[in-house]
Fold this sequence. Notes:
Blueprint (H helix, E strand, L loop, with lengths): L1 E3 L6 H14 L4 E5 L14 H11 L6 E3 L2 H5 L5 H11 L5 E4 L2 H6 L6 H7 E6 L6 H15 L3 E4 L8 H9 L12 H8 L8
Parallel strand pairs: 1-2, 2-3, 4-5, 5-6
Amino acid sequence: MFGGSFNPVHWGHKAMLLRMIEEFALDTVYVIPTFCTPLKDNTPMITPEHRLNMCRIAFSDVSSVIVSDMEILRQGKSYTAHTLRELHTLHPQDELFLIVGADSFMQLPMWYNVGDILSLATVLTIARGEYDYNELLTQKDLLESQYNAKAFVIREPVVQVSSTQIRNLISADKPFAHLLPEGVSEYIKESGLYGYGCN
Protein backbone atom coordinates (compact mmCIF):
# COMPACT_ATOMS: atom_id res chain seq x y z
CA MET A 1 0.00 0.00 0.00
CA PHE A 2 1.22 3.46 -0.93
CA GLY A 3 -1.22 6.03 0.39
CA GLY A 4 -1.15 9.80 0.53
CA SER A 5 -2.86 13.01 -0.42
CA PHE A 6 -0.92 13.13 -3.74
CA ASN A 7 -1.70 16.84 -3.94
CA PRO A 8 -0.33 16.61 -6.63
CA VAL A 9 1.45 13.31 -7.30
CA HIS A 10 5.05 13.96 -8.43
CA TRP A 11 8.30 12.31 -9.50
CA GLY A 12 9.37 11.80 -5.88
CA HIS A 13 6.33 9.59 -5.30
CA LYS A 14 6.90 7.59 -8.47
CA ALA A 15 10.66 7.19 -7.96
CA MET A 16 10.14 5.92 -4.42
CA LEU A 17 7.46 3.47 -5.49
CA LEU A 18 9.59 2.10 -8.35
CA ARG A 19 12.56 1.70 -5.99
CA MET A 20 10.46 -0.21 -3.47
CA ILE A 21 9.02 -2.51 -6.14
CA GLU A 22 12.56 -3.32 -7.25
CA GLU A 23 14.11 -3.67 -3.77
CA PHE A 24 11.38 -5.83 -2.22
CA ALA A 25 10.06 -7.62 -5.33
CA LEU A 26 6.54 -6.36 -4.68
CA ASP A 27 3.92 -8.11 -6.81
CA THR A 28 1.19 -5.49 -6.52
CA VAL A 29 1.11 -1.97 -5.10
CA TYR A 30 -2.17 -0.26 -4.25
CA VAL A 31 -1.74 3.49 -4.73
CA ILE A 32 -4.51 5.00 -2.60
CA PRO A 33 -5.26 8.74 -2.57
CA THR A 34 -6.85 9.87 0.68
CA PHE A 35 -10.27 11.43 0.96
CA CYS A 36 -9.10 13.54 3.90
CA THR A 37 -5.66 13.23 5.52
CA PRO A 38 -5.92 13.46 9.34
CA LEU A 39 -2.49 15.07 9.93
CA LYS A 40 -2.83 17.57 7.05
CA ASP A 41 -6.09 19.29 7.95
CA ASN A 42 -4.72 22.76 7.08
CA THR A 43 -3.26 21.87 3.68
CA PRO A 44 -5.19 23.31 0.69
CA MET A 45 -6.58 20.26 -1.10
CA ILE A 46 -8.15 19.85 -4.52
CA THR A 47 -10.97 17.34 -4.96
CA PRO A 48 -10.31 13.64 -4.38
CA GLU A 49 -11.44 12.92 -7.94
CA HIS A 50 -8.73 15.15 -9.43
CA ARG A 51 -6.05 13.59 -7.21
CA LEU A 52 -7.26 10.10 -8.16
CA ASN A 53 -7.16 10.98 -11.87
CA MET A 54 -3.61 12.34 -11.58
CA CYS A 55 -2.47 9.14 -9.86
CA ARG A 56 -4.02 7.05 -12.62
CA ILE A 57 -2.09 9.09 -15.18
CA ALA A 58 1.18 9.02 -13.22
CA PHE A 59 1.25 5.25 -12.69
CA SER A 60 -0.44 4.12 -15.90
CA ASP A 61 2.83 2.65 -17.20
CA VAL A 62 3.59 0.59 -14.06
CA SER A 63 1.88 -2.77 -14.53
CA SER A 64 2.10 -3.80 -10.86
CA VAL A 65 0.23 -0.70 -9.65
CA ILE A 66 -3.49 -0.57 -8.90
CA VAL A 67 -4.76 2.97 -8.26
CA SER A 68 -7.64 2.52 -5.84
CA ASP A 69 -10.47 4.82 -4.76
CA MET A 70 -11.28 2.81 -1.60
CA GLU A 71 -10.50 5.67 0.81
CA ILE A 72 -12.34 8.18 -1.36
CA LEU A 73 -15.44 5.97 -1.44
CA ARG A 74 -15.23 5.51 2.34
CA GLN A 75 -15.12 9.33 2.79
CA GLY A 76 -14.40 10.94 6.14
CA LYS A 77 -10.86 10.95 7.51
CA SER A 78 -8.67 8.38 5.79
CA TYR A 79 -7.11 6.09 8.38
CA THR A 80 -4.38 3.73 7.19
CA ALA A 81 -5.37 1.18 9.83
CA HIS A 82 -8.82 0.82 8.24
CA THR A 83 -7.38 0.54 4.74
CA LEU A 84 -4.81 -2.09 5.69
CA ARG A 85 -7.55 -4.08 7.39
CA GLU A 86 -9.58 -3.92 4.16
CA LEU A 87 -6.57 -5.02 2.10
CA HIS A 88 -5.91 -7.87 4.53
CA THR A 89 -9.52 -9.00 4.06
CA LEU A 90 -9.10 -8.87 0.28
CA HIS A 91 -5.73 -10.68 0.37
CA PRO A 92 -5.67 -12.78 3.55
CA GLN A 93 -2.77 -14.98 2.42
CA ASP A 94 -0.49 -12.16 1.25
CA GLU A 95 2.26 -10.33 3.11
CA LEU A 96 1.40 -6.62 3.30
CA PHE A 97 3.85 -3.73 3.03
CA LEU A 98 3.20 -0.06 3.77
CA ILE A 99 5.29 2.46 1.81
CA VAL A 100 5.63 5.85 3.52
CA GLY A 101 7.78 8.95 3.12
CA ALA A 102 10.44 9.79 5.68
CA ASP A 103 8.26 12.45 7.33
CA SER A 104 5.36 10.02 7.74
CA PHE A 105 7.73 7.35 9.07
CA MET A 106 8.83 9.74 11.82
CA GLN A 107 5.17 10.54 12.63
CA LEU A 108 3.96 6.93 12.78
CA PRO A 109 3.53 6.83 16.59
CA MET A 110 0.96 9.66 16.19
CA TRP A 111 -1.12 7.71 13.66
CA TYR A 112 -4.55 6.33 14.52
CA ASN A 113 -4.32 2.71 15.75
CA VAL A 114 -0.60 2.53 14.98
CA GLY A 115 -0.42 -0.84 16.73
CA ASP A 116 -2.88 -2.31 14.22
CA ILE A 117 -0.93 -0.79 11.33
CA LEU A 118 2.36 -2.29 12.49
CA SER A 119 0.81 -5.68 13.16
CA LEU A 120 -0.68 -5.82 9.66
CA ALA A 121 2.19 -4.54 7.51
CA THR A 122 5.94 -4.20 7.19
CA VAL A 123 6.78 -0.50 6.85
CA LEU A 124 9.15 0.70 4.10
CA THR A 125 10.73 4.15 3.75
CA ILE A 126 13.62 5.97 2.06
CA ALA A 127 15.92 8.52 3.68
CA ARG A 128 15.38 11.96 2.19
CA GLY A 129 14.78 15.58 3.09
CA GLU A 130 15.18 16.80 6.65
CA TYR A 131 15.48 13.33 8.17
CA ASP A 132 18.81 11.59 7.63
CA TYR A 133 19.47 7.88 7.55
CA ASN A 134 20.54 7.63 11.20
CA GLU A 135 17.39 9.41 12.46
CA LEU A 136 15.24 6.97 10.51
CA LEU A 137 17.20 4.01 11.88
CA THR A 138 16.61 5.30 15.41
CA GLN A 139 12.89 5.52 14.67
CA LYS A 140 12.98 2.02 13.16
CA ASP A 141 14.53 0.66 16.37
CA LEU A 142 11.86 2.44 18.45
CA LEU A 143 9.02 1.01 16.36
CA GLU A 144 10.51 -2.48 16.56
CA SER A 145 11.03 -2.33 20.33
CA GLN A 146 7.73 -0.65 21.28
CA TYR A 147 5.38 -2.25 18.75
CA ASN A 148 7.24 -5.39 17.63
CA ALA A 149 7.13 -3.83 14.16
CA LYS A 150 8.94 -4.87 11.01
CA ALA A 151 10.45 -1.93 9.13
CA PHE A 152 13.11 -1.24 6.52
CA VAL A 153 14.91 2.00 5.68
CA ILE A 154 16.53 2.42 2.26
CA ARG A 155 19.59 4.64 2.41
CA GLU A 156 19.79 6.01 -1.12
CA PRO A 157 18.06 9.35 -1.71
CA VAL A 158 15.29 9.75 -4.27
CA VAL A 159 13.98 12.77 -6.14
CA GLN A 160 13.96 15.79 -3.84
CA VAL A 161 10.60 17.39 -4.56
CA SER A 162 7.44 18.07 -2.58
CA SER A 163 3.81 18.71 -3.46
CA THR A 164 4.01 22.02 -1.60
CA GLN A 165 6.91 23.10 -3.80
CA ILE A 166 4.94 22.27 -6.94
CA ARG A 167 1.82 24.10 -5.74
CA ASN A 168 3.96 27.16 -4.99
CA LEU A 169 5.55 27.05 -8.45
CA ILE A 170 2.13 26.85 -10.11
CA SER A 171 0.73 29.75 -8.11
CA ALA A 172 3.85 31.80 -8.96
CA ASP A 173 3.44 30.98 -12.67
CA LYS A 174 6.84 29.25 -12.81
CA PRO A 175 7.83 26.03 -14.68
CA PHE A 176 6.74 22.86 -12.88
CA ALA A 177 6.15 20.15 -15.51
CA HIS A 178 9.66 18.67 -15.07
CA LEU A 179 8.76 17.67 -11.50
CA LEU A 180 5.73 15.58 -12.52
CA PRO A 181 5.27 12.24 -14.29
CA GLU A 182 4.29 12.47 -17.93
CA GLY A 183 0.71 13.62 -18.46
CA VAL A 184 0.16 15.05 -14.98
CA SER A 185 1.18 18.61 -15.83
CA GLU A 186 -1.13 18.57 -18.86
CA TYR A 187 -4.01 17.44 -16.63
CA ILE A 188 -3.30 20.26 -14.15
CA LYS A 189 -3.23 22.84 -16.94
CA GLU A 190 -6.35 21.56 -18.69
CA SER A 191 -8.27 21.42 -15.39
CA GLY A 192 -6.96 24.76 -14.09
CA LEU A 193 -5.82 23.20 -10.81
CA TYR A 194 -3.89 25.00 -8.06
CA GLY A 195 -4.73 28.35 -9.63
CA TYR A 196 -3.07 27.55 -12.96
CA GLY A 197 -3.95 30.16 -15.55
CA CYS A 198 -5.25 32.65 -12.97
CA ASN A 199 -2.15 34.85 -12.97
